[in-house]
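Sanity check

After download, print the first record. It should look like this:
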Amino acid sequence: MGLGPQYWLRDGKGGGAAADLGAASAAGPSRPASPDTARPEPIGEGQPQNKAIMARKKLDINIRAWIDKLPPSLRNKYVVAAIVYGFWMLLFDQHSIMNQYRLNKTLQELQTKKAYFETEIEKDSRKRENLSTDDRHLEQFAREEHLMKKDDEDIFIIQKKP
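Expected structure tokens:
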């Protein structure tokens, strides 16, 4: 028969589904087995086994033993999903604890700066109000800040050594 291995049966002959099921239905029509029913022969005692398959089986056994040691509540798939979700949210998400801490620290710094600048604005507003309403304050500001003087005055600037 020219059919591929997916159509071979356990006996190695292309005899159809009847040969796969045995002599009970040998009188039925011959048709190729579907890929779902075609199974490879098990590896016998004398045949070499694939090392990767053996390693995979050993790993599966180790994982299964480790899972069996867990309490039943941790074997529940919903609990595992919730734990993984919580772990993800705590460490890797945009709103993780690390980012929240960093944002909170930045917020506190900005609030401190805001309070400082609000007090500075208040001081400057009072100073501007005093300069616009009182000539004595205006003269004092001009002398101290801009070093202005009257015609008959001399100004001496004394600086302290650091």
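If your output differs, re-run the checksum step. Summary of this record's structure: Confidence is low (pLDDT under 50) at residues 16-26.
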